[in-house]
Write the structure tokens for this entry.
Amino acid sequence: MFTKVLVAEDYEIANQGIIKVLTEKIGIQNIQEAKYCDDAYLKFRKAYNDGQSFELLITDLSFRKDHNIQTRTSGIQLLQDIRIIDPLIKVIVYSQEDRVDKINQLFQKYQINGYVCKGQRAVKELVNCISGVYQGVTIFPPELTDNQSANNMIQLDDLDMVLLEELALGLTKKEIRVRLQEQSITPNSESYIDKRVSKLFDNFKAKNTTHLVAIVKDLGLL
Amino acid sequence: MFTKVLVAEDYEIANQGIIKVLTEKIGIQNIQEAKYCDDAYLKFRKAYNDGQSFELLITDLSFRKDHNIQTRTSGIQLLQDIRIIDPLIKVIVYSQEDRVDKINQLFQKYQINGYVCKGQRAVKELVNCISGVYQGVTIFPPELTDNQSANNMIQLDDLDMVLLEELALGLTKKEIRVRLQEQSITPNSESYIDKRVSKLFDNFKAKNTTHLVAIVKDLGLL
DNA sequence: AAGTTCCGTACAGAAATCTGTATGGCTATA
DNA sequence: TATAGCCATACAGATTTCTGTACGGAACTT
């Protein structure tokens, strides 16, 4: 089993909870915790340089900005930076995020080794995940393997996101058109913008722009 | 110090974290945990009926709906139900919520004894909170006592909230009017609805309805 | 080469939004 | 009792949204 683990999680209580599970349920003794991304990075680098590298990183995704200056505020940044030092480090993400496409992205784009969603069964999932990752297996969370939820995904391209953002800012179609032209983003005709937004209405079963933005905000896409 | 405590928190890891703090930092031995509101309620009632009542409830605000049938899904409901059994029970809420007015409401409307915000200093805050509450003091979180954040609050009444909700559902002013009339909510004229919404525009510096809903969603008011 | 299907644009009309003005009722206060 | 201020409503006009139709071009199929 892993003998040396780094836990990066800014919520102190959750931090303590993870450590409790690691020590009591798995028997890992050498655990270090970090409440800030930068802190985690420095601890990792120091251990690596001392030839006593961590074998596993368990990290949250989002870190609150605090009075402390934080150059790295997201777990993704942290894992990228740490992979530069040690490309073979195993990484498990432990986060609130339960959106299927976002979790998927973590595996595909950032090649994490496991994901555990904060939730009612997180202890068991975490234990399974760690032992699976130790054996070299990539551990997908139930959220992903339950194909029930994997279906109702809607693919949004860059233009869709731009439109949603500007609508949420209260811009009119005309204003959006002008903006797109200024940034030389094509297509940018008013009628096409209308079409695209209407398509989004269909996708999200929205009655109008306001409803659409509300739905997308609720889904956490914006 | 408290000798018997009930922890209601659906996130297992956080649950474990709280227990770790209670045992190791405060030395409370008799702790029971519950991952569901209903479960917490039953445990509390049983202990009370057995004449071995809990002295303190630490509860989260929001509980995820799960496959299990949950009649109580919010911590507020839980604390109300428990106060019916034992009006003197001390209650500390431990939650992600950091909106000043929502926390304020917990103290004023539901008379909780303490609040701890999930965060980077939650361990210390929790320890302080518990010892303060034990001494009979109401412990407000730093979020409330820092008057810096207490200023920029906007008071929304019931009608405002109803309007915001219905707008977010994509209803037109006409439809909203009809709804209000059906529920005999007054005032309900279309023009007054217009006026109220325009006032909300001013309050939140919104350009239009879509922008307004986006802002309110971001603030977590909806 | 002809047909089909998207993609991007243009236009048009009904509905809805947004803003401003006007009016009557209620309350408070001088 | 007169005045002022707020609440609730009504109406009106400019702007915007939303929906549908139409048209040309590019890509792809047969």
Summary: The interface with chain B takes residues 10-21, 35, 64, 66, 94, 118-124, 126, 167-172, 206-214, 217-218, 222 of chain A (CB under 8 Å). Chain A is about 55% helix and 10% strand.
